[in-house]
Structures are given as C-alpha cells and as structure tokens.
C-alpha cells in the first residue's frame, strides 16, 4: 500500500544574496495515491547540481522552471520501485527520474529519465547519476558534438574538479586531445586533477589570474574551451584560443548569486569587451542544453560504460547521508566543497561495496 506521506525538502524563502540553510526546511507532505501507469519509488540517491542556484531566484532566466517558496524542490534522483501499476516497470526495478529532494515519489512511468530503468550490475548506483548520468552526458555532448574535439587539440576546462569538469577532462583525452588543462578552487583540487583525472596541468583560479595561468599551462594556445563558469574565465579563454577555436558554453555560474552577480560592473564590461576576440580569431561559441541531444545517449552510455569497465575513466562522488543534510550539501557544492558529483544518499544502497 502506498505510504500516505513522505519527507521532502521545501524552499522556505528565496535567498537574499547567497543561500543559507534557513532558506530550506524538511517537511512531511502527502503522497498521491498510485494511479494506472504510475510508480512508487523509494529514492536511494539524489543529485545536487550547480544549476539549482539559478532556480532559487525569482527571475525566470534558466532553462527550466524556478522553485516556488513553500513548495518542494525537485531534481534528478535514482531509486527502487516499491509498487508499480505499469507492466513494463515492475517492483524491484531501478529507475532515474526528476522527483528528488524527497524520500519517496509517485511518478508516471513515462517520466523516468532517459531509458528509465538502469542496470545496477553494469555500474555502481551513484555512477548512474554522475559519470553515466546527466553530468557525464553533458560533458560528452559538449566535447563530442558541440566543440567537436579532434586529435591533437589542447582543451581547457573550467570548474574542472566538479561533476561535469572531472568527466570532461577525462573524456577529452579519450576523444583525442593531446593536452588537457583546467582550473579549480584550491591547491588540493588542482593536485587531484593531475593525479587522478588525467589533466596535464591545473591552476587555482583563486590564487592566480586565469589569463596568466593559461599562458603558463598552454603557452601555444588552446583549441577548445569547455565553459562551466563564464565571466573572467571565459574572457581569459577567448584570449588563449587559437584561430578557429571552439567554445562549448555549458554553464555560467559566475552569473548567479548575490555576491557573484554584484562583483562590479567594470569587470563585467571588461569581460564582455573580450568578445572581439571571437571576431578576430574566427571562433565558434555554441551554447547547448543537454536535453536537446538525447539521440547521442546510447552512444554515450555504451562508450563510457566501456571506459569505466576498462579503468580508462575514474568516477568520483562526494556523498552526504540523509535528507536532513541536503540543504547543506547544496551550500557546500556552491562553495566548491565537492570533488566530482555531489550526491545525497537517502537510503541504504543494496549494491554498495562499502
């Protein structure tokens, strides 16, 4: 029988500047009865993503709906089907979906993500929200289709220790890049990029101007910039790009948040003025939203699963436990407190090797 309620994370109020834990609350909310074609899913893991920062604001400027004060948050999650009224997705199946930030969810079977069901025997469950999930898919689409990485390219990735960035650096190499460089926040993350994720060099953007770092790490210039940040890092990349270079515009975290947004009009104007480089160097700057490229998912899952099995790529997650830790996990993510994919574990993982 479907439980009557579930615990959810709600937005109490929109942040005044940077979000704080008091902007969120864990509440008990009713669960709808299970209808025909629907599933009751017990969430095991939920994804915590940088894109959530933009969804906390009042202005609708993101590629999905913004959160509403007083209502539950939502986001990508993975769970086990406890009850099913859909013959193609039986109880016991594992599925990805969009009703995270809660312990249980009732959803239409048609709304499960991508292929819906996932194979926990193919890769660990957290991997299906990280390297084999939307973040890994974002990195793959940006490099393989948007930037069209070619053998011999020098590739620069910003926010390189995050979920998308740590995947992008590894994928770039496997797609033929000759040199891969990145930026991250802090010397420990930079060391990890080189030691674990295969970067040739990494720079701490907090300690060194990015334009100077790129001149040091890639003195002959770069061919591809995978942009997770925008702002100063995009401006620096425009100067470092060679003629005919390509930019995959994935995210603009420098545009979100009170302190980041009010960083100074003179700096923003300086960043914008660098766009003349796109003209002078015949650059291609292409923004993308990953959901527009679902046709590439089978190729992505096949290739990346093979890379995982053979040990050619490394999956890293930062995992916190329990719904009560979810808001703090988001704040930690926004402050750069993660390596790889940030996840919240909501229930015991039956496939965990720990």
What is the share of helical residues? 25-40%
The percent range for strand residues is: 15-25%
Radius of gyration (CA) equals 20 Å
Q: Count the E strands.
A: 14
Mean pLDDT, rounded to whole units? 90
The biggest sheet, with number of strands, parallel, antiparallel or mixed sense and barrel status, is: 6 strands, mixed
Number of helices: 11
SSE order = EEEHEEEHEHEHEHEHEHHHEHEHE
Which outline best applies?
A: globular
Query: Span from first to last CA?
Result: 31 Å
Which runs of at least 5 residues are low in confidence (pLDDT < 50)? Answer: 258-269
Describe it.
With 354 residues, the protein is α/β, with parallel strands linked by helices. The protein has helices at 52-55, 134-146, 163-174, 187-195, 210-217, 231-240, 258-261, 265-273, 276-280, 297-309, 326-334, and strands spanning 5-11, 24-30, 38-48, 77-84, 94-97, 104-108, 154-157, 179-184, 201-204, 222-227, 241-249, 284-287, 317-321, 341-345. Strands 3, 4, 5, 6, 13 and 14 form a six-stranded mixed beta sheet that branches. Strands 9-8-7-10-11-12 form a six-stranded parallel beta sheet, sandwiched between helices. Strands 1-2 form a two-stranded antiparallel sheet. α2 (134-146) crosses α3 and α5 (210-217) packs parallel to α6. The radius of gyration is 20 Å and the shape is globular.
